[in-house]
C-alpha cells in the first residue's frame, strides 16, 4: 500500500523484461531472517502467498490461476509458463537477463523492477557475501547477481599487485644505486672490496626483513574475518583495504629510515669529508627522486589502464548476458504464439479447456526438462573449459616469470659507473615496464579467449533450445493435434505455418529491443567513464594543492632557521620533495582503490535504477501514449524515476564524502610521518652546522680556550660576593626569558606545521 509506484507500472506491458531478486543458496552469510526481510520488502500479494503455503504447492508468486474443466486449480500455462529454479542455474537474475530466465520462462509480474527496494540498511548490503574470484574468466561462470562486485574486487587485486611490484622495484633500484657508489669508492681505494660487499649484504638483509614483516602483517589482515575462503563481503573488503593502506604507510616510513641508515653507514665507512658526504647524500637523494618520478608516472598510467579494463570487462559480461537472454525471450515468443493458436481452437470448440491445458502442460514440461539438461551441460562445459584455460594461463605466466627473471639478473649483473646511474635507472625501469606490458597483453588475450569460449557455448545452447522447441511444436501440430481435435493434417500444417509466420515479427521485435538495450548500456558506460575522468581530474587538482601547501610549509621552516648554507637548504628541500613524492604516489593509488569501493557500495542501487530507466525507455519507445491515462501513468513513472535518481545522488555524495574523510585522515597520518622524519633530518643538519660554527670560532682564535678562561679569571679578581650573586641572578633571569621565548616559538612552529 505504501508503494504507489508499484501499482502505477503494473498496467505496463508485462512482456517487458524485469528484475526479480531471489536470495542465492550459495550465500552462506545471509540468514533466513534476512531472506524473509527481503521478501517482505517486495510488494507481494500476501493472500496468494498464504494460499500457496497452505496448499503446499510451489507456484510462482503473483501467478494467475485458472480453474480447469474438472474444477481443479492449475497455473494458466499459456499465460505464464514458469518453472521451478533448476539445479546449477543462476539463482539471482541479473539486470541484463541470465540463464535463470531459462527455467523461469515468461515473467509476468513487471512490478518487481519498477522500484529500487531499499535494503534494511546499508550495513546489510555491505555484509552480504559474494563470490571471491581471482581472475576475470571465473566471473564468466559466476552464478551470482553481484557480478559488478566481483569485477571491482578484481580491480582492487590488480591495484594491490601493481603497488607490490613498484615497491619491490624501488627497493632494488636503491640497492643498485648504493652498489654503484660503493663500487666507485672501491675503485678510488677509499673503502675495501670486502667492506663494500659487507655493507651491501647488510642492506639487502635489512630490506628482506622489512619485506617479511610487511608480508606477515598483510597475511594476518587477509586471514582475519575469513570465515569462508570461497566468499567475501564488502565490509571485509573495505576493512582489508584500510588495514592494507595502514601497513603500507608504516612500511614506507620504515623504508625511509632504512635508506637513511644505509646512507649513513656508507658515509661512516668511507670516512670522507663533511662537504663530500653532503654532496653524496644530495646525489643519492636526487637519484631516488628520479626513481619516485618514474614509478609515479608508471603507476598513474597503469591505474588508468586498470580502470579501462573494468569497462572492457563489463562490456564482455554484458555480451554474455545478452546471449543468455536470447533463449528465454525466443522461447517465450514461441510458446505464447502456440498458446494463442490453441486459444483460437478452444473458441472454435475444436479443443476443450482441459485438453488445451494438458497440451500446454506437456509441451512446457518436455521443453523445460530438455532445456534444463542442455543448460546444465552448458554451465559445466563452460566451467571445465575455463578451468583448462586458467591452467594454460598459469603455465604461460610461469614461463614468462622465468624468462623475465633471467633478463633482470642479466641487467643487474652488469657494472655501471656513477655517470651512468640515470641510464641504469631508465633501462631497468623500461625492462620492467616491458615485462608488465607483456603480462598485461597475455591476460587480455586470455580474457578475450575465455569470453569467446563461453559465448560459443551459449550460442550452441541457443541453437539447441530453438531446435528442440521447433521439434516439440512440430510434433504438437502435426502428430498430437490431428488426433485430439480431429482436424486434417493439412489444416494442422497451416496452423504450424501460422505459428512460424507470427514468430518472425516477434523475434524481429525482440532483436530491435536488444539493440536498443545494448545502446542504452553503452551510453550508461560512457557516462561512467566521463564521471571517472572528472574524478581523476579533481584528484589531480587536490594532489597539486597538497604538494604546493607542503612546499610552502618547508620553505617557511627554512626561512625561519635562516642560518644554514645553500647546500644544506638544497638538501632539506630535496629530501622533503622525495618523501612528499613517495607519500603522494601511495595516496594516489589509495584514492583509486577507494573509488572502486565506492562503486561497489553503490552498485546494487545503480543497477536497479538503470534497469528501471531502461524498462521505461523501451516501453515508451515501443508503445507511445494513446490516451490520457497512459500519459498520466508515464508522467508518474518519470516522476518516480527522478525521485529515485535524487535519492541515489544524495547517497552517492554521502558515500564519496565518507571515503574522502577517510582519505584525508590517512593523508594526515602520512604527513605526520613525513614531518617527524623531516624534523630528524633538519635536526641533524642543525647539529652539523653548530659543530662547523664551533670549529670555525676555535680555529680563528690563536690562543687556547683554557688560556682565555685563565685571563678572564685574572681580570675578575676584584669581583665581590655581592657582584657575583647579582651576576648569577641576572644570568638565570635572562636564561628564563630565553627559555620562555623558545617555548613560544616552538608552539608557533607546531601550530604552523599542523
TrEMBL record:
GO terms for cellular component: ciliary membrane; plasma membrane protein complex. InterPro entries: Limbin/EVC. This is EVC protein. Residues 93-103 have a biased composition (Low complexity). The keyword NADP does not apply. The gene is Evc. Keywords: Cell membrane, Cell projection, Coiled coil, Cytoplasm, Cytoskeleton, Membrane, Transmembrane, Transmembrane helix. It comes from Aegotheles bennettii. The keyword Cell membrane applies. It comes from the Eukaryota. Residues 93-118 are annotated as: Disordered. It is found in: Cell membrane; Cytoplasm, Cytoskeleton, Cilium basal body. GO terms for biological process: smoothened signaling pathway. It is a single-pass membrane protein. Residues 595-677 form a coiled coil.
